[in-house]
Specification:
Helix content is 29%, strand content 43%. With 134 residues, it is α+β, with helices and mostly antiparallel strands. It has one domain: START domain (Alpha-D-Glucose-1,6-Bisphosphate, Chain A, domain 4), CATH 3.30.530. It has a seven-stranded antiparallel β-sheet. The mean pLDDT is 95.
């Protein structure tokens, strides 16, 4: 890989919940707030929204949406311009969730390292949230 190529991080997790429950946790603002951050998300193509925490905010825009299958949005903060994509695949036991964040430049090692640590934690909490849904 050359220094000019964008780097990505990927988290994959099999969850014992149907795609519909995982989708709800990914797309309902009050549930997103439980596993990720405060937000004004709407599951609509091109909807601009933000997620925020004590440290600041991230500007986002929905780039692709296929209910119960795919959700992709931009994730822009400070000098990081990246794309997050969630892919849901039904399995015999539930759902395989794949999350990929792409767009880390070679000089953004701190962002990449932080995302590598935080996304598995976020996804584990997302699984807990989905497990509480009826």
């Amino acid at each position: 890989m050359t220094g000019e190529e964008a780097r990505a991080i990927t988290v994959e997790r099999e969850m014992p919940h149907p795609p519909e429950k995982v989708w709800r946790a990914l797309t309902q603002p009050h549930l997103i707030a439980e596993w990720l951050m405060r937000n004004d998300f709407r599951p609509e193509l091109h909807h601009r929204f933000s997620v925020s925490a004590e440290w600041g905010a991230v500007d986002c825009e929905v780039r692709a949406i296929e209910p119960n299958r795919l959700l992709s949005y931009s994730w822009d903060t400070k000098d990081l311009r990246s794309i997050i994509t969630f892919t849901l695949e039904p399995t015999q036991k539930g759902t395989r969730l794949r999350m990929e964040q792409i767009g880390f430049r070679a000089d953004q090692e701190a962002y990449c390292r932080g995302a590598t640590i935080r996304w598995p934690q976020f996804i584990a909490t997302l699984e807990e949230v989905a497990g509480r849904l009826d």
